[in-house]
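Worked example

This section walks through a single chain of length 175. The input is the sequence exactly as stored; nothing has been trimmed or padded.
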Amino acid sequence: RERSPQTAFYFSDWIADQIPQYIGNVQDDIVVITTLRPGWQAMAEKAVTEVMDKDGAAHKASQAALIAMTPDGAVRAMVGGRSYAKSQYNRATQAVRQPGSSFKLFVYLAGLESGLTPDSLVDDHPISIPIVGGTWEPKNYTNRYLGVMPMKDAVAESVNTVAVQVAMQAGLNHV
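Given that input, the structure is written out below as tokens.
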């Protein structure tokens, strides 16, 4: 059996907070078996550190979070911030986010199911969608457009206009 790395404190806190709802308040020692994979955890921590060291300042980001899961929902790695020693606030589970970017995962899944691949070329450009009473013109957070790119890059960059196009192509009912 794999042992948890000493760095999975955000994950450990998250698990410990959930125990009472499953087994009540426990006064005795218990053994809890989790889905964490130390190898994944080490890679996740390394990835967050590398990205933040390289691009954090340029994006005015001082913190980051990451959750790696299997398709059935098993959490294999969790990074709640750059340094647990400096802040125990778990940005992976406690931070409030815009729902749109979270919803994009379902849009891209529908796109994949409809035949797109991560390498399918998509075009990030201004678009106009007819709606009742007019048109909707979604914009990217950066207010710039990146042109033709593989879909995997649009996912990585969280490109709004491409997500809308993928949703339209896959079919809104499918999404």
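What to look for: The beta strands are 66-69, 75-79, 121-124, 129-131, 134-136, 147-150.
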